[in-house]
Every structure is written in C-alpha cells, then in structure tokens.
Amino acid sequence: TSGSNIRVAVRCRPFFPSEQGQHARSVHMTKTSANLINPVTKQQRKFTFDSCYDSSGDIDGEGYASQQDIYSDIGVWLVDNSLRGYNTCIFAYGQTGSGKTYTMLGPDGTWDSKHEDAHGLIPRICAAHFDYIQSKTKRNITEPTIERKYSVMVSFAELYMEQAYDLLTPEAAKRANAGSASTSPGDPTSGAAGWRRTAQSNSYNGRETLRLREHPLSGPFIEGLTQTEVSSLEEIQSLMERGASARTTGVTKMNEQSSRSHAIFTMTFTQTAIATDRGVPIEKKECKVSLVDLAGSERADPGGSRIRETANINKGLLTLGRVISALTQNAAPAGEKRRRGSVSRRGSEIRNRSNSGSKSSSRGTSPMKSGSTRASLFDDGSNSKSEVVPYRESVLTWLLKESLGGNAKTAMIAAISPAPQHFEETMSTLCYADQARGIVNQAKVNDDPAA
Ligand code: ADP
Predict the structure, then answer these.
(1) Count of domains in the chain?
(2) How far apart are CA 213 and CA 392, in angstroms?
(3) d(CA 285, CA 288)
(4) What CATH code is carried by the domain that includes residue 181?
(5) CA-CA distances (angstroms) from residue 22 to 36, 224, 260, 286, 421?
(6) What DSSP character marks residue 217?
(7) Tens digits of residue pLDDT in 352-367
C-alpha cells in the first residue's frame, strides 16, 4: 500500500431568494480555487483544492456545477475504487443550509425517481453499483468456468448527542439491541481496548440507542444496526423513505434536529468469484462505501452562543477537527510539524497564525520547503513523535476511523454559502477543508484470494 492524500473539494450553493439583491458575494471560484473576500476589509484569501464546484449561479445557467458534474468527478472516482475493492468514503462538511444534504442525497434530503437530474451522490453511487452488477452478469457468458456473485447491503445510521440510532428499520434495531444487552457482560468491548457506552439504556423519541463495537479485522461498527440486502435502487429508495419518516417521528422541528445530527449511509459491496466446476469461491472482495452528511459545522464553533446546550452535539465535529490536525501533523515532514497548528474554528485566528495562506495553496511544495528550512534551525526533536489521533473521543470519529488516515479512499466535500453574511462560517469551513488536505490514507484492496 502506498499513502495518498484524501481528496478535498468545495461546493458553493446558490443564493437564497432572501439573500438576493445583495450584489456582493464573498467567494469567487475557479475549477481549483476559492477566493474568499472579507465583506468589511475586502481582504482576500485564496485557497486551492482538488476541485471547486461553483453552483452559485442560475441552476439552468452555463456555469452552474450540477449534481451530474459532481458525480462525474468525485462519484465516478469513488465507484471506480469501490469496484476495485477499496473502502471508500465521502463526507460533506459545512454550516447548516450550505448544501450538504443536497449534494449527498438531493433536494430536501430525498430522491424523487422522476427527477434523476436532481439526484445527489448517494443515489447515483448506488445506481452505478447496480449497473455494474448488471453489466457483469450479462458478460459472464465469456467466462464459462467462473460464476460471479455480487451482494449489496445497506444501512443508514444517525448519530445524535453521541448516540447511534438506526434510520432504516427502528423496530428491527430495537430487537437487535435488546438481544445484545443480554450478552454484553464479558463481551470484548468492555475491556480497556473496547469502546465503552455509558448510556446504553437511553432512548430518544422512542428509539433505542445502539452500541458501538470493534471487529478485530473490519474495525468499529454499530452493533444491531439493520443491514439490508438490496437488489435495486428502488429498494434502497423505499428503505430510505421509511428512514426519513423514522427520523421525523415525534420531532417537532425536524430541521433543527437533523442539522445537529450526523447521517451515515453505508453500502457494503461484495464480489465473489466461484469456480463453476468445483463450486468453491476462488476470490472474494468486500468493501465498504461510507457516505456521510455531517451535522452543521456552526455548532462546532466554541465561540458560538449555543455551546453549552450543544456540547454533546458538537463533540463529533470538534473531535473530527482534532483528528484531522493530528493526522496532518503526523503526515507532515518532521520539520513541518511545528509550524502546523491545530484546526481553529475562528477565521481570524487562522489568519494570524500564518500569513502564508495564499502561498500554502500550492499543496506541499513551497510552504513545506520553506517550513522545513526554518523549523530545522529550531527543531529540538520533540516534534518528531507521532501525535495520538483521538479517534475514540467521539462516536463519529471512531466510526470513521478507517476513512480518516486509514484503509480507505476518502473525499471531503466542503459546502459553502456565497453570501457575505456567512463570511465567517465560510472562512472556517475553508480552513477546515484546507487542513484536511494534509491527511494521508493507506488504502488497500480488500480481497481474499483464498476465500
Ligand atoms: P445543509 O444540508 O447543508 O443544511 P441543504 O442541502 O439542506 O443544506 O441546502 C439548503 C437549501 O439550499 C435547500 O433548500 C437546498 O435545496 C438548496 N441548495 C443547496 N445546494 C444547492 C445547489 N447546489 N443547487 C440548488 N439548490 C441548492
């Protein structure tokens, strides 16, 4: 395995009708850069990313980056990797109302089979896997000695207040959870190496919380989360519709809650090759596709007024920031470590910390070099140790452990608003995304030739 950086993209949503009439915009984008302008001081800061999608114009206009544009780029990249047997992940980060759900699922967090153009990444990625299975099943005629089998399993979980809930079939999740409770004493997760859940009996809106466990090979997972085998996009769609209704049960302000929770859609894709003469599997590839719609990032702001009441909700995003900084530190050359600070949520602090913002946009080249030269003069060696990555400090980061610095091909999509009144949030989102570019993953094909 060789390391490769995670892909980081930015998408800017359209102006809302209420924001229109303000001619100024706080961000200008090219295919690979986002230039952010402070509406007061007019100071500019340019960021460079793997790709930038400007969807701020007229949805039917020339320059509008469509759902298809984003799929052709990041979605197709993910599908290629998944079909080859790599674990893959896309996570959407940004303030509430910046277009995370639109990008991941579609308008209003649903997908309407009549409006395929509006489909976000999740339906398109699922569809691509079914298309592949269909094309392979047809082509199998040319391989008379091998029978290929495919399976697609999906699950959909919600993380809210550091607890995990099943979004697909709450009833099944409830039963599974009840069953696991009776076997919990002495289970491997109660030891020091395991993840301890302290409030297992908690429920919210009548839904049971699920426990986290760790599999020695495949890593952390949510115990009792419904895994449903599906054979078509329509099946996933109807499952998701049920999930959406589970999410609203008993919740008065759905948006309020969904903006505070993380939604994790997982597809497990298994490809098996069976020797037809002997009837035994000769190869098996299994990969996990994780598609994550994170909570609104404004909640993670330690300076925000809601900090006290949302301490728990913020934990996932706060820890995610710390995980990203630790991974970036660990991946940076020794001399560079000192100069890289942790992700700060405050744009102003970030600006003070380093005035090389525009330079650092050419990733890993000039700023790295100048940094090493300077730091080497002062380096006392104390920074050369790897920082401990605090995965276990939140449910979110623990579950995404393999996707962040581990065995997966990962992309982050930072969703931003073009409106000047969101300048501070946009700055902090772009800084967060900029830091995430330093994460190096070690992906390998998950195959088992002796299956
Ligand atoms: P978030 O999930 O970040 O809270 P949403 O995805 O709900 O944000 O987007 C907020 C609103 O903006 C929704 O009404 C959504 O349909 C609209 N929107 C977001 N991104 C786009 C886009 N690229 N094109 C058109 N409308 C968008």
Answers:
(1) 1
(2) 11
(3) 10
(4) 3.40.850.10
(5) 16, 49, 29, 50, 10
(6) T
(7) 333 333 333 333 333 3
> Is 96's C-beta closer than 6 angstroms to any atom of ligand 1?
yes
- 120 Cβ below 6 A of ligand 1: no
Q: Is 219 in the pocket of ligand 1 (CB under 6 A)?
A: no
DSSP tag of 389: P
Domain span including residue 303: 4-372+384-448
| Residue 352 in tokens | 């003070």
Residue 172 domain-assigned?
A: yes
Res 105: pLDDT: 93
**Type and span of the H or E element at 269:** strand 262-275
Nearest CA, atom 21, ligand 1: 13
Single out the residue of 409, 413, 404, 399 nearest to residue 83, CA to CA.
409
Cβ count near 123 (within 10 Å)? 24
In a domain, residue 274? The reply is yes
Task: Judge whether residue 398 has pLDDT over 70.
Answer: yes
User: Assign residue 161 a region: left if phi > 0, alpha if psi is -120 to 50, beta otherwise?
Assistant: left
Whether residue 390 has pLDDT greater than 60: yes
Helix (H) or strand (E) holding 100: helix 100-104
Distance, in Å, from the CA atom of 6 to the CA atom of 438, rounded to the nearest integer, reads: 8
The predicted pLDDT at position 308 comes to 46
378 located within any domain: no
User: Which atom of ligand 1 approaches the CA of 65 most closely?
Assistant: 23
Residue 153 dihedral angles phi and psi, to the nearest 5°? -120, 140
With a 6 A CB cut-off, is 107 part of the ligand 1 pocket? yes
Q: What percent of the chain has pLDDT over 70?
A: 70
Ligand 1: does its nearest atom lie under 6 Å from the Cβ of 263? no
For position 381, what pLDDT does the model report? Answer: 42
Closest CA to 312 of 173, 167, 110, 160: 160
* 155 or 248, greater pLDDT: 155
In a domain, 377, yes or no: no
Q: Atom 10 (ligand 1): residue with closest C-alpha?
A: 97
Q: What is the pLDDT of residue 246?
A: 58
- DSSP letter, residue 226: -
pLDDT by residue (tens digit) across 243-283?
665 554 434 334 566 678 899 999 999 999 998 888 888 89
The pLDDT tens digits of the residues spanning 314-339 come to 788 989 989 998 998 888 776 555 44
51 lines ligand 1 (CB under 6 A): no
Non-local (6+) Cβ contacts of 273 within 8 A are: 146, 147, 148, 149, 281, 282, 283, 284
